[in-house]
Structures are given as C-alpha cells and as structure tokens.
Amino acid sequence: SLFNKQSKTIGLMVPDIMNPFFPELARAVEDTLAELGYTVILCNSDEDTDKEQSYLEMMMQKYVDGLIVSSNTLSAERVKEFKMPIVSMDREIAKGLPSIIVENKKGAKMAVSFLKEKGRKRIAHIRGPHSVGNAIDRCEGYREVVGGEPWFKESYIAYGNYDMKTSINATIKLLKLHPEIDGIFAANDISAIGAIKAVHKLGKKVPEDVAIVGFDGITLSEATTPELTTIAQPIYEMGEKAAKMLVEMIKQQQVEQTIYRLDVQLIERQST
Ligand code: RIB
C-alpha cells in the first residue's frame, strides 16, 4: 500500500457469487482475516476480463494490502504488474504464484470410479467451462476412468457453465440423445443439483435410473432431494489457508510452501 502505510484491507475476487461454493469460501477468508485484524472487499468478476480489470484497478486505488483471487483470466505478467502480495485460491493462475488448490483430477477419478463400483454402465460428465483449469482437470479425471471403455462416446461429455441453468439444459439434451445413460458425474455441486432437476423433469428417478455425483461439498448438497453424493473440497480450510498465507506475505515472513494442494473426500449420500 502507498507510503508504506497499511490499510489493513484485503481484496477478495471470486468468479461467481451465485455459486454457493464461493460465499462459503469467502466466509472462511473473512473469518480468518477478521481475527488477524483485516477487513475484506469482495468483488464478483463473472470471469469477465474487463470487469476483473476495473475491480483490480479499484482495489489498487483503495490501497489494499494484498489480494486473494480466484480467477482464470489473470496471467502471470498481469500478476507482476500488481506490486503487492497475491494469493491464488481455487485456481492456479501462474506457475510460481502462491496458490491454494485441491486434488481436482484425483477427486474426479474417485467420483467416476464410485459410479462404476455402484454398477453404472454408461457414465456421462457435465463439465465446467472450457478455459477453467479445475474443469479441465476434472474432465481429465473422468476420461482416465472411462475414456477407454468400449461404450465411451465423446458426446457423453456435455459442457455446462458451473451453474444450475446450463447444467439443466445440458443434462436434458444429454439424456434425450443418450437415454442409456445411468450415471452422471457433474463437475460441481450446483451443476449436479441442476442434473437432478433435469432427470426429474424427464420423468426419471435419481438414483434408480440415473445416479449422480457432484463435486464441492457445499452445505446445500445435504438439502437436495435426494441428498447429493459429492466429492467434498475442504472449503473452509482452503479459505483459511489462503488468508493466513497472504498475511504472512504482507508481513514479509517466509512463505514455506508456494502451492498447497489439499485433499478431497467422497461423501456418499442418496443420489447414488
Ligand atoms: O468456479 C466454480 C467451481 O470451481 C466451484 O463450484 C468449485 O468447484 C470450484 O473449484
């Protein structure tokens, strides 16, 4: 911050505040920073480069002491322009930038293997956006488990936008085109909730006709009918670690580890 004065304010930028994953994460960041004496400015970028840019400029003008960002459009060069500590959370922006992420590929493999163990023979994937790193990793995990199966078709992979609406549409299309599908791995919970809704709309049952596994472990996943089986990320821990790491950087203490890759866990519920 300017004149070496600290504003004791941190900027937090997330891609989509409508996705319940991010308020849960933001809560952890805020709790932790509050304890350490910092306040938080929250920005929702919609992963729009222009919006992101103007938020970043605004935060620089407010002299924030550091940034925690969950972004897919920021490049390594851009990050260097911001002469302040930055921690990347949930997404890996650039090599060498302090990041807190999870075992995305491993989690996806766990989800798809679990559907197989449950006897599912035609497993589809509702993936996240093209350019988002964790969506790519989760899709790779899906492919590693079923991509070599004789029944596998490229059209078993449908694109969603990590939100409910696109997932409902994608799932309806997928099941109309391939009524044989009996299992779906959705790349995040809100998409899985959309998939449940779509299956019901088509007059089918979850899990009897189509078993569904999500990814995230948001609180809402316990409240769906049926309750959602999911690959839980340690959401709170991720936010807490990102906040602590940033404060360490601000105080210019040594950051012992640049990339934390946290583990995930399968939670079995009724949707499988
Ligand atoms: O950006 C959306 C997704 O990325 C979240 O739902 C969560 O899965 C995160 O890792």
Keywords:
six-stranded mixed beta sheet, Rossmann fold, 272 residues, single chain, six-stranded parallel beta sheet, alpha/beta, binds alpha-D-ribofuranose, 2 domains, 39% helix
Description:
The protein is of the alpha/beta class and 272 residues long. It folds into two domains: 2-102 and 234-262, Response regulator (Rossmann fold); 104-232, 3-Layer(aba) Sandwich (Rossmann fold). It is 39% helix and 19% strand. It has eight helices and twelve strands. Strands 2-1-3-4-5-11 form a six-stranded parallel beta sheet, with helices on both faces. A six-stranded mixed beta sheet has the order 7-6-8-9-10-12, with helices on both faces. Strand 1, helix 1 and strand 2 form a beta-alpha-beta unit. Helix 1 (21-35) packs across helix 8 and helix 6 packs across helix 7 (189-201). The chain is elongated. The relative contact order is 0.16. The structure holds alpha-D-ribofuranose. Alpha-D-ribofuranose (RIB) binds at residues 15, 19, 21, 90, 134, 162, 188, 215-216. The site of alpha-D-ribofuranose has 9 residues, from strand 9.
